[in-house]
Amino acid sequence: MDDNQPTAAVLGGSVSGLAAATGLLRIEEFDRVTVYERQEYDDKRVDCGEAINDTTLIPLPKTPENGFVNDIDGFQIRVYDGTDRPLDAPPLAKSNVCCESGYICERPVVERRWAAELEARGVEFRTGRSVSPTDYADIVNSYDYVVDASGQPSLTLKANGNASEYTGDMVALNATVEGDFSAYRNRPRIFFEGYVGYAWAFPKSDGHANVGIGWAGDRRPADYFAALETAAERNAFPVPDRADVNIATIPRGPSLGPDRVCDPEAKVFLVGDAAGIANRYQGEGICQGIRSAYLLTELIADGNESAYPRKLYELMRSEYRLARLMRGAWVEHEDIDLLAAVTEALEGLTIDDVTRRPATVMRRVAGRPATALELISDAGMIRRVYESYTDSWEYTSRGGP
Ligand SMILES: Cc1cc2nc3c(=O)[nH]c(=O)nc-3n(C[C@H](O)[C@H](O)[C@H](O)COP(=O)(O)OP(=O)(O)OC[C@H]3O[C@@H](n4cnc5c(N)ncnc54)[C@H](O)[C@@H]3O)c2cc1C
């Protein structure tokens, strides 16, 4: 080992950590990249809907053996008139959004194969043991770079006693169930039903699917499991066995200011859920985590890693902006007919459009002047537009969900 060659530790070997290791491997001068993962890949558990909307980000052939089990055309969003409805009640609105390289995956398999590929190329994996705050301090002292991809609350914030900064604004439950999903295998379903959040049924094959439900904000049911069960009945997917249900929170980003995503002196950088960048409207976080890791490693390659907080913010800004407006469309009005009209306006757009392109979404909604007018004729919504376009909601105490 050449003493002048930098070394890197990656804390957490899930999608963001694996992407970080991939990016670090591309930097020739790195001598040693070590991934610390508390789980073993053979029985790794993930709390996730397993929809990966841009699988081009993952450097593996898109085969079932690698966990890419269902190549989808996109998603069908269905809006219903609340949860108290006859089982055969038709949706108020349906809308199809597309994604070219999207898959419903067996995510533990994707991670296992990705890790194996990296190990074969020289990345060292230390699995099966949790990194403690003491280990964390040793690791920070021993490596030239530390990428914290430990999810939320991140090891860095735990070690610094700041874990409460995560808001855990969204809570979600999921499980894999067996049933007949052949009718919508290529177009997984998302069900909006009058609460801030949604249920989903994402087929992995004709015969099994990842199903779940999530809520955002403060108004949540008293019994999460019962709420998932009744959502399953209403939306005609099998009721999961409670023992199979995972429950987790999805962190909200604005609680983490730019100064919270890196410690330039210690050369510690946070990526993915550790940095709190999952989409705060719909909870998607895999591609966001991978993109943040690639961004960081490209900056390290250029010797420009101190720009990471600013560049990450630039990368995420349009997504933050759109999420704030989309959430506003719901929470400021709480009008299911309006949500149905907005949903219909999205027909045919791509996941990228509805996640990251506020101008495209606004143009679509503007094409329905009555809907646009209703949407904007609300003080809370006007405030959201102003804050979004002056970036004044981010990292300030004013920023709500
Ligand atoms: C129910 C639910 C459904 C979701 N569905 C989707 C979806 O369909 N599509 C999507 O894009 N996103 C989805 N998300 C969000 C997505 O799962 C996360 O954004 C994503 O997992 C973030 O990846 P990450 O690698 O940053 O963190 P994580 O996936 O949280 O990975 C962190 C890793 O660090 C390891 N680790 C943690 N602490 C330590 C420690 N002390 N020592 C060593 N290792 C440690 C963990 O074992 C884990 O492997 C969903 C989230 C939930 C809760």
From TrEMBL:
Q: Which PANTHER family does this UniProt record tie to the protein?
A: CONDITIONED MEDIUM FACTOR RECEPTOR 1, GERANYLGERANYL DIPHOSPHATE REDUCTASE
What protein does this entry describe? Answer: FAD-dependent oxidoreductase
Q: Which organism is it from?
A: Natrinema saccharevitans
